[in-house]
């Protein structure tokens, strides 16, 4: 759910479009300045802030004088300083939710935005500790930063409606491993599992054991919009242990119940909850990623539900490292450039035959290495 109405749309054309690429690169480079070098600007009246929501041509920021002391009750409408707008870049946006930025107040502000929203100009951005990124669905040559500078990644899936997509979970896990990010997996709608076939329940149980054996925390809950008081308190207690005093990105497939889970955390902004039709069709109700404060302490970034998640291209060694169970077998293959698909003397393939690596996870590895749709991983998907 967007924090504010989308009623600002700057259509001014940038000037000096013929600047050299070298000059553009200089401008892009100068936009990033380490936080420890901001003091001279702060002495001149600038303020440091955190990006809480990003739109096409502007963002909303909240002051953050110290780490994770984000004053989300005070919001500024922010635009990037014009001198950077011509910079050549590979990202879809200059900014992402979670960015630390250096701002100066702008008393003029956009004329078509309510005057009760203060305006500011973003002059600098701090280096990013980590980025949760996928390929831009509209342009596969650019990256779409979903969130940056987060403390943990919380992957939400549902047992049914929509059915859990294990391959999508593996894609998120691979990205988190590449960023050295802690991960928690939440499986929602546990109450719907009992009515399913024994075969499906056994398959799901088998997958659960995979992630538990790999050491990924796995939380199983039945968080719905009509919970009893007792069930609600039980869910809140379990979720508080995951989210309290952290900055977490909540992500997953459309319709898995992310907004319902966020509402159990008592956010400052109540999220629109999926109705029955959305729950079954897997459509999403959250439109923009938004940073939200929680009553129990901490912050979450509630991201829009997605149907695919394409990672940027990685070499076989890079991708193998993102699967923690494959790391012990790195550099043990006969050929240095082994892709672990059909090469002779492959240590990974031998480990699969010895049941040291689960074939389900290997299937995800092959899918990420050889395809770019981001839609693999349903229970019915099999290796050909």
Describe the structure.
- The structure is a single chain.
- Strand 9, helix 4 and strand 10 (218-220) form a beta-alpha-beta unit.
- This protein has helices spanning 21-31, 39-43, 166-179, 198-213, 229-243, 258-264, 276-281, 316-321, 347-353, 359-370; strands spanning 47-54, 59-63, 76-80, 100-105, 118-125, 131-136, 139-148, 152-158, 183-188, 218-220, 247-252, 290-293, 299-302.
- The chain is globular and about 65 Å long.
- It has a six-stranded mixed sheet with strand order 10-9-8-11-13-12, with helices on both faces. Strands 1-2-3-5-4 form a five-stranded mixed beta barrel.
- It folds into three domains: 21-127, Nucleic acid-binding proteins (OB fold (Dihydrolipoamide Acetyltransferase, E2P)); 134-302, P-loop containing nucleotide triphosphate hydrolases (Rossmann fold, 3-Layer(aba) Sandwich), CATH 3.40.50.300; 316-370, Ribonucleotide Reductase Protein R1, domain 1 (Orthogonal Bundle).
- It has 384 residues and is α/β, with parallel strands linked by helices.
- The protein has ten helices and 13 strands.
């Amino acid at each position: 759910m967007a924090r504010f109405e989308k009623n600002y749309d700057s259509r001014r054309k940038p000037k000096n479009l013929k600047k050299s690429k070298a000059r553009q690169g200089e401008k892009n480079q100068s936009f990033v300045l380490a936080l420890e070098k901001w003091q001279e600007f702060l002495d001149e009246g600038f303020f440091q802030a955190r990006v809480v929501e990003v739109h096409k041509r502007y963002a909303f920021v909240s002051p953050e004088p110290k780490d994770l002391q984000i004053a989300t009750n005070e919001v500024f409408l922010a635009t990037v300083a014009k001198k950077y707008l011509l910079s050549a870049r590979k990202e879809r946006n200059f900014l992402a939710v979670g960015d630390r930025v250096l701002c100066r107040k702008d008393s003029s502000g956009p004329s078509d935005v309510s005057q009760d929203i203060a305006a500011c100009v973003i002059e600098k951005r701090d280096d990013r500790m980590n980025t949760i990124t996928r390929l831009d669905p509209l342009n596969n040559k650019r990256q779409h930063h979903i969130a940056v500078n987060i403390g943990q990644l919380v992957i939400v899936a549902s047992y049914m409606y929509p059915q859990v997509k294990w391959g999508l979970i593996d894609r998120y896990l691979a990205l988190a491993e590449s960023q050295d990010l802690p991960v928690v997996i939440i499986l929602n709608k546990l109450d719907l599992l009992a009515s399913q076939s024994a075969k499906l329940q056994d398959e799901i149980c088998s997958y659960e054991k995979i992630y538990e054996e790999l050491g990924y925390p796995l939380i199983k809950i039945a968080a719905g919009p009509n919970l009893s008081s007792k069930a609600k308190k039980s869910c809140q207690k379990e979720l508080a242990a995951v989210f309290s005093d952290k900055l977490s990105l909540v992500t997953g497939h459309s319709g898995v119940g992310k907004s319902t889970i966020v509402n159990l955390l008592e956010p400052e902004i109540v999220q629109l909850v999926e109705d029955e039709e959305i729950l079954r069709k897997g459509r999403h109700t959250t439109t923009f990623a938004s940073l939200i404060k929680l009553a129990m302490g901490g912050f979450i970034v509630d991201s829009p539900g997605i149907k695919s998640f394409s990672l940027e291209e990685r070499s076989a060694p890079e991708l193998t490292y993102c699967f923690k169970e494959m790391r012990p077998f790195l550099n043990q293959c006969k050929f240095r450039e082994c892709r672990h698909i059909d090469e002779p003397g492959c240590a990974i393939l031998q480990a699969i035959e010895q049941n040291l690596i689960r074939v389900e996870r290997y299937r995800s590895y092959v899918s990420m290495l050889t395809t770019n749709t981001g839609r693999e991983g349903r229970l019915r998907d099999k290796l050909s």
